[in-house]
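Explain my protein.
***
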Amino acid sequence: MKMKFGKKLFSSLVVAALSVSMVSTGAFAASSTENTTGYGKLIGAISMNYSLGDFYLTTTVEKNNDNAYLTGKVEWQNKLGQTTGTVTFEPSKRGEKKLFEFWTFYGSLPHQAFGTHGVQGGNTHQSAAAFTFTVL
């Protein structure tokens, strides 16, 4: 199906504006999705707001009837691949479908981040994990 010139131009301008706004706010995001048995999709995401120095981790499942808990961990590395910090967040309460945590950096920022997102400890279904990575 052909798109008219005006719609193409408008779409291009919207994409350009969003790209500029992402660069000007100094933000990034990375996500990963894994299909699980019993929990639906497990979605892990890491993101950062450079101007605030805040780093965010989110772990989400579509359903959690199995009374499992969600987990999240982030490891930061410098340009040499050396670990400069690790944060393991407290697990969610059992049965919850979303875990959201954040960390504030003071001083220099790491070069890259690895996120581990999990669902585990349920009564019936197996544990599952999703992994995220991004260069800051």
Confidence is low (pLDDT under 50) at residues 5-25. Residues 5-25 form the longest helix (21 residues). The first strand starts at residue 27 and ends at 35.
